[in-house]
Amino acid sequence: MISKEDIKHLEKIFPFWLDINQNDRAKIILSSRILSLKKNSIFFNSHELDGLLFLKSGKLRFFLSSLDARELPLYYLNNMEVEFFENFNDKTISTILDIAFIVEKNSEILLIPYSVLNLFRNKYSIMEKFLHNLTREKFSKSLLSLQNILLVPLKDRLLDFLYSLNKTEIFLTHEEIAKNLGSSREVISRNLKVLEKENFLKINRKKIIILDRGEVL
């Protein structure tokens, strides 16, 4: 049984919560559960996570994983955000690429099983529309990320990524940066050196120092 606080989360997740009859709301509450995910855990096609996932705390990084072990970054899930897996373990969707995620920080999620949602999407048109919109948003984010990888030069994506961290000193390894950008450590190292020559940053042994943008200009 989830807590009263988590029931309040359900009310926020589903804007139409009060339009669901009391018995059905009770079924959703009773089927929901809290899961703790440890940092650096990776989930590939996990049937355990089919359904609607509400991130109470932590951070998850989603990516596409190919048979040649290449990772293509998609998007992040942050605190109080929702993700919906309609059929997370169905490999018929793609025999080449599988969606997966890595736990960037110790995380706690509220999970509403797909089996329960599937019952009510047939009963409530507003539930069907809600889940459809979540799926559409996910594919839109994924497509935007893939377009970015294909069309934007890596050097520009690398600089944007470093700026997005909002830190003057960055203690990520070149390998960690590469995973975030769907590249390799060698290519990232090469592009960092280019950015250093262009005075965007300085590379020390264990950190990257972002130069003030005024200095660059």
Account of the protein in words:
GO terms for molecular function: DNA binding. Residues 152-214 form the HTH crp-type domain. This protein is of the alpha+beta class and 217 residues long. It has two domains: 4-150, Jelly Rolls (Sandwich), CATH 2.60.120; 152-210, Arc Repressor Mutant, subunit A. The protein is built from eight helices and nine strands. Helix 3 crosses helix 4 (125-151), helix 5 crosses helix 7 (185-197) and helix 6 (174-181) packs across helix 7. The longest helix has 27 residues, at 125-151. The chain is elongated.
Structural topology:
Elements: H1 4-13, H2 22-31, E1 33-37, E2 42-44, E3 51-66, E4 71-77, E5 82-85, E6 97-113, H3 114-123, H4 125-151, H5 154-164, E7 169-170, H6 174-181, H7 185-197, E8 201-203, E9 208-210, H8 213-216
Antiparallel strand pairs: 1-6, 2-6, 3-4, 3-5, 3-6, 7-9, 8-9
Task: Provide a brief overview of the structure.
By secondary structure, the chain is an alpha+beta fold. The protein is built from eight helices and nine strands. The strands form two sheets. Strands 1, 2, 3, 4, 5 and 6 form a six-stranded antiparallel beta sheet that branches. It has a three-stranded antiparallel beta sheet with strand order 7-9-8.
Which architecture of the largest domain per CATH?
Answer: Sandwich
Strand content: 25-35%
Radius of gyration: 20 Å
Order of helices and strands: HHEEEEEEHHHEHHEEH
Identify the overall geometry. Answer: elongated
Q: CATH superfamily name of the largest domain?
A: Jelly Rolls
Oligomeric state: single chain
In this structure, how is the largest beta sheet organized?
6 strands, antiparallel
Name the CATH class of the largest domain: Mainly Beta
For the secondary structure, the number of strands is 9
How many H/I helices?
8
Q: Provide mean pLDDT, rounded.
A: 89
Structural class: alpha+beta
Proportion in helices: 40-55%
Report the uncertain regions. Answer: 88-96
- For the record, the count of structural domains works out to 2
